[in-house]
Design goal:
extended, two-stranded antiparallel ribbon, 11 helices, 63% helix, disordered N terminus, 4 strands, mainly alpha, Rhomboid-like fold, 289 residues
């Protein structure tokens, strides 16, 4: 893939996360193709397809796994080929930028976000959609990847195969999103197509939300920061509680000259005894305890 303003005919590598997603999608597609080829098992295949695809009514009635599983089902050969090609061409570069864990977090954040948007819109009745419309495909995650690539590598040039000319990634992504928006509006009387386009737009929306609001190190870093913050708050509470108990103890033993500030700072930390009698302006800090 071309980088910057120079053209390269090389293909991106098969990075670990992208390779796993390609294999998983391909294996599921092959499994359903084989099941559908046998008349005796076609009913079972149809039943699995319905309960693993995304249906708004089913999700709000407990089948929440559909928020993820729908992204591994595809409606036909061209559908899966386009999605997997885009996953490889754009996802590989993002995985090299972010690493395995962060890339996977971003991809499934977009997949689930696209599903939530799809479910929400399906209950509004807008654009002729219905909560019983089935949605399948990895396009929500793919559109998130496209948006991220367009923002982070906007000046890179890509070839519009099979057309023999180059276009900057940011303009390509703008065009793709504009086509999805037009498709949603133009197919307002065909609910199935409209809700599919809404999934595309939902994936792009959640891709933007991630880039704008999620910490650069992802949800793992955010969770660890919250955990450390809670732990530190707990320790501060324990120190202040111990300081109050010490104050009560000193007063019970008739220490009339006791002053709380002589022993503890404003955070409840015990002051270094060697600094208690220092004059104001002493630069030495309290003990770290």
């Amino acid at each position: 893939m071309p980088r910057g303003r120079s053209m390269s005919l090389s293909f991106p590598p098969f990075t670990p996360a992208v390779k796993q997603l390609l294999i998983a999608n391909g294996a599921v597609f092959l499994l359903f193709t084989l099941l559908g080829a046998f008349g005796a098992t076609s009913f079972f295949a149809d039943w699995m397809y319905v309960h693993l695809g995304l249906e708004g009514y089913a999700v709000v009635h407990g089948e929440i796994w559909q928020l993820v599983t729908y992204a591994f089902l595809h409606a036909g050969l061209m559908h899966i080929l386009f999605n997997l090609l885009a996953l490889w061409m754009f996802g590989a570069q993002l995985e090299m930028d972010w690493g395995y864990s962060l890339f996977m977090q971003f991809y499934f954040f977009c997949v689930i976000g696209a599903a939530l948007v799809t479910v929400a819109v399906s209950f509004t009745g807008l654009l002729g959609v219905s909560p019983h419309t089935l949605t399948v495909g990895a396009s929500g995650g793919i559109y998130g990847l496209l948006l991220a690539f367009g923002i982070l590598h906007g000046e890179s040039e890509i070839m519009l195969f099979p057309l023999p000319f180059l276009i900057k990634a940011k303009y390509f992504v703008m065009g793709i999103i504009a086509l999805a928006l037009y498709g949603a509006l133009a197919s307002s009387h065909g609910g199935g197509q409209s809700i599919a386009y809404m999934a595309h737009l939902g994936g792009a929306l959640f891709g933007y939300i991630w880039l704008k609001f999620v910490p650069r190190r992802g949800f793992g870093f955010l969770a660890s920061e919250r955990a450390f913050g809670l732990r530190n708050s707990y320790y501060r509470w324990k120190r202040k509680r111990a300081a109050r108990k010490f104050e009560v103890y000193m007063r019970k033993h008739d220490r009339g000259d006791y002053r709380h500030d002589d022993y503890f700072d404003e955070h409840g930390n015990f002051r270094d005894p060697s600094t208690r009698d220092k004059k104001d302006g002493d630069s030495r800090g309290p003990w770290v305890n």
